Amino acid sequence: MIEPREPERTILTGATTVAPQPTGPADTAEPTSVLLPGHDVPLGRYTTVRRLLPQRQRRMIGAWCFVDHFGPDDVAGRPGMQVPPHPHTGLQTVSWLIEGEILHRDSLGSLQTILPGQLNLMTAGHGIAHSEESPAAHPPSMHGLQLWVALPDSARHGAADFAHHPSVPGWREDGAEVSVVVGTLAGVTSPAVTYTPLVGAQITVDAGSGGRVGLPLEPDFEYAAVVMSGTARVAGAGLTPGDLLHLGRGRRELTVTTDTPDADGPTRLFLLGGEPFDEPLVMWWNFVGRSHEEIVAARDDWATGRRFGTVHGYAGDPLPAPEMPTTRLKARDRDGRTPGA
Prior knowledge:
- Residues 1-31, 313-341 are annotated as: Disordered.
- By secondary structure, the chain is mostly beta strands.
- Helices cover 4% and strands 43% of the residues.
- It contains one helix and 25 strands.
- It is globular and about 55 Å long.
């Protein structure tokens, strides 16, 4: 059942200020919604992505610490995605497509194409390198999400791993289809291995159906929603591609509706959620750590050919690491605050 009282909503456009978070127990807190605009970032030589997370005052959603939305891009007769070998530490990468085809290579020897509806999950642990590219013969359009999940301290020093899932579980009801990409939603669990309680799910609502779907939520989780195509109303707020709607904590159910015209195709939305991640992080370039010294060591290891291994088969040089900033990197919590400051 949907609670009869509509949760309070704070809609901020063109700003990164986050509404105050609940301070009481999750089941009595008043949830808020905050609309946070993304910004464009070049990825490789040929792709521009819309970066939705992290933002200055909203660094994480559960353990989700990075969200890039790319496309839809016309890549007919073009190189498409071309991201040379580069390193990662302390995170998992989640690759999810709704159009196109991407080839993954990594320093474990993995060689795997991902197609729409399939999941690539790479666990960096102490260190891994990988590349991503559109194959020479690729579909004319490319559209999807690239996400990172921060590993907790208990898992971030472990061995690297890569897993490909050719399908994920889900269900269909009332003109809507739900695919559980990571974690558990409504009792349906993805086969992806994760290290903190979280969820990532795609909700596809048929165009012109007056579609409406209700999703049961965990009140102790914090949530956010991203529309990849079409338009939707989520928790009463209008949402279009290019923004992230932070939903806060304390919700037991979420309603998604759409009035996208038939000609525009279905509305696709991605739901992110998880238990609040309480470990402050240092995120720089492709590394997730806990201190300035960890990041310096990871950069030096990449520059000198240690730790990360070699990605074989990519037709190009690895990405060089940028220079370290002139100021010391500081750990920040999920709200963007520096502990002890």
